[in-house]
């Protein structure tokens, strides 16, 4: 079940998210990668993310598009 703050904003119970994207407040340590993806997309380059599962590929993409 999701927790709500007084203002009605969503607050996850566990700050260590292992599934899905909870927003920029819970996304960390990928500043350079986010900037690289944004730059590549703005310059019309194709981007492929490759890594083992559960490393954060989907989160990086969702975070990139939430910052645009």
Summarize this structure as a short list of keywords or feature phrases:
mainly alpha, two-stranded antiparallel sheet, 68 residues
Order of helices and strands: EEHH
Query: How many strands appear in the DSSP assignment?
Result: 2
Strand content: 5-15%
Oligomer: single chain
Q: Please give the alpha-carbon distance between the first and last residues.
A: 30 Å
Shape: globular
Work out the helicity level.
25-40%
Overall mean confidence score, pLDDT: 79
What's the short story on this structure?
The chain has 68 residues and is mainly alpha-helical.
Can you walk me through this structure?
This protein has helices spanning 31-42, 57-66, and strands at 3-4, 10-11. Mean pLDDT is 79; it is low at 1-5. With 68 residues, it is mainly α.
Provide the fold topology.
Elements: E1 3-4, E2 10-11, H1 31-42, H2 57-66
Antiparallel strand pairs: 1-2
